[in-house]
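Aim 2 progress update. The chain analyzed this quarter is reproduced below.
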Amino acid sequence: MKRSAIFRFVTPGLAALLASACASSPPRYPAPVDTPRPEPDEVVKAYPLDKAPEFMGEELEGAVAPDAATERVVLGTRRDGSPVHLSDYSGKVLVASYWASWCPPCWSELQQLEDIRADYAGRDIAIVAVNRGEPQSAIDAFLRRQQRPLGYTILSDVSTRASQEQGVSAVPTTLVFDARGRVARRYVGLFGFSASRIRGDIEQLLKRRG
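Predicted C-alpha cells:
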C-alpha cells in the first residue's frame, strides 16, 4: 500500500491522540528490572468499607496486623537513609502511594494526592509517596520538574523490599490504611486510582476512629 493511501486512514482525532502520546513520553530513566509496568487491564482491588470494622482485620492480601506489628513494618526511607515505619502514623488514616518517575499515570496521581493533602490539612490523615526501585537522583530530578511542590512525605524504596512486604509489585499502587495500620483499600494499576474514592475512604475511616 502506498504511503498516500495509508495516511488517508489517519483521522484528525487519531493524529491528535498520537501527538498527545508522544508529548507525554516518560523521562529517559531506565526502569528497574524487578519493577514491572502495570498492564492496562489491571483494575481496582477494593475492600468493602461498608462491612463491619472487624472485616478490615481479616487476612487480606498485603494486610498488616494491628498495633505492635506495625512497629516492624518499614514503608520506606528518608533522604538520610533513616527508616519510616507504619507505626509512625498510628492513630491516623494513611494513604501510601507507590510510584516511579517513568510511570505517566503516577504523575497525575501524585498531584491529585497533593490536592487531597491540602484539603485535609489539620485532620488526622497522612499521605506518603514511596518511590519504588529508583535512585535518589531520579527522584530529585522528577521533583524538580513539578510545577507545584508536593507537600507530603516522599520516601524511597530502592531495593523494593518494603513495597514487596505490602504486596506491591507494580506502580501505580495506592494503599489506604486505617488508624490501626490495617489495609482498608488497595488501588492497583492504570485504571485503579480514583481521587473521589480515596476521599470517600478517608471520610469513612475518620468516622470509624471516632
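The mean pLDDT is 76. The first helix runs from residue 3 to 7. These observations will guide the mutagenesis experiments scheduled for the next reporting period.
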